[in-house]
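Typical record was shown:
=====
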Amino acid sequence: MFPKIFIPSLLIFTLFFLFGEIRTKFLIVEFNLNEISVKRYFGLQILTFKNSEIKGWKYSYLSSKYGTYEYLYLYVDDKKVVKISEFYHRNYSHAKNYVQTHFRDLGFEEFSLKDELKEIFK
């Protein structure tokens, strides 16, 4: 009885988790003259935000056994809309430079696993 409940539940949780990771971390961010485009799901979903809509950005650090990685979050109306990661984006320094020069710094945000899980399962 236990394996019949546990194994399917574990598989469903894993699928939701992977889907959320793909949605929130595996994305392409393009900075254009007056807007930011975010491509999710390998380009199947494209979100566009005007630079004037972006309230600002915050940064956070996530430590792992391999090192500490920085994350940048772009906000529209107190809601995280873009997450740029030093771990996932190889041109992170260029993106960070663009964000720092074009948007308002809202400060540091403590990394929260609880918030990350909420975002994954939204």
Summary: The chain has a mean pLDDT of 83. The chain has three helices and seven strands.
